[in-house]
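It is worth pausing here to work through a concrete case rather than discussing structure prediction in the abstract. The textbook approach is simple: state the sequence, then state the predicted structure, then interpret. We follow exactly that order.
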Amino acid sequence: MPSNAVLRLRQQRLAQSTRPFLARGSRAIRCQLCLLPTRNCLCGHITSQSATSRFCLVMFDTEPLKPSNTGRLIADILPDTQAFMWSRTEVDPALLAAIADPSRQAYVVFPASFVTPPRQVFTELPANSKPPLFIMLDGTWNEARKMFRKSPYLDQLPVFSLDVSAKSDYILRESPRADQHCTVEVAAALLEKTGDIQASHNMTELFTLFRTRYLAGKPHHPVHQLTANVEGSL
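Step two, the predicted structure:
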């Protein structure tokens, strides 16, 4: 059985598919846990961590199937991460239960510029607040905006807006803007902001290694060519 919520969701999504999902590089023989080519497997470098913050991934359609998905790295580091498929109307009862958990304050993580008053927007955790449940809308930028606009069960929750102005290091997919960050980059920044420093550090290190090994699996990418040259010289 897959070891985290995103991998379990992946298995559910595969079971629902009427035809095989063919991601880029689908001919590669992949580890079924980290989804990298087996020669670049990441699994031996994953160290789980505890944190006060908790994450809930709401994933768009085929997102759990994509080897380039980084939400999976959040669940690798924080085993209590939850993951659900997005639906506008058919909402998983477990997602509603997570949102309603009285021991935590749920926040939808999204840029403040897309929020319409009087919805609350936070950029810091309020003093003496409950531990946060950060709801991450995981998909492409256009998919995330659709989820934000068309999820009525999330409309009553406050938004947590994170100012991450630095250029993103995520280069596995094209993004409309250089300052748009992938899911795991945002999660690591949230952990740092809320004081879960070690978990943030572990998550950032895993993402850096994941990115390098993912690119090393692309035959025409310079990282792959450099790796091949090093191996050939040994």
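Step three, interpretation. The beta strands are 54-59, 82-85, 105-109, 121-122, 132-138, 159-160. The longest helix spans residues 197-216.
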